[in-house]
Amino acid sequence: MGRLKVTQTRGKVGTLQQHRDTLRTLGLKRINDVVVKEDRPEIRGMVRAVAHLVTVEEVD
Q1: Residue 8 above 90 pLDDT?
Q2: Best CA proximity match to 23, nearest among 3, 37, 39, 40
Q3: Residue 18 C-alpha from the chain's centroid
Q4: pTM of the model
Q5: Is the pLDDT of residue 1 over 90?
Q6: Strand partners, 55
Q7: Which of 17, 18, 29, 37 is most buried, by the most CB atoms less than 10 A from its CB?
């Protein structure tokens, strides 16, 4: 399976608590933080929930 590079591009201030929790679960703490995660359905679902706060790239 591939990997996803997830970068937080917008701040979490003023967002829903659920979105803040999702960012924390992904391992993102501040703007410009980057994490690399396995490309799994659970991760894709979390990224989709906070798509307005992050950018995603596929990494080999």
Answers
A1: yes
A2: 37
A3: 13
A4: 0.92
A5: no
A6: 7
A7: 37
Read off the pLDDT of residues 11-47 as tens digits, 9 standing for 90 and up: 999 999 999 999 999 999 999 999 999 999 999 999 9
Burial label for 11, CB within 10 Å (0-12, 13-18, 19+), is: exposed
Is the torsion defined by CA of 20, 21, 22, 23 positive or negative?
Answer: positive
**Helix, strand, coil % over all residues of the chain, rounded to 5:** 30, 30, 40
Task: Name the residue range of residue 52's domain.
Answer: 3-59
Q: What CATH number did the domain enclosing 21 receive?
A: 3.30.1390.20
Helix (H) or strand (E) holding 21: helix 17-26
Number of neighbouring beta carbons within 10 Å of residue 32:
8
Reading the block at residue 28, the tokens are: 């993102």
Under 8 Å between Cβ of 33 and 8: yes
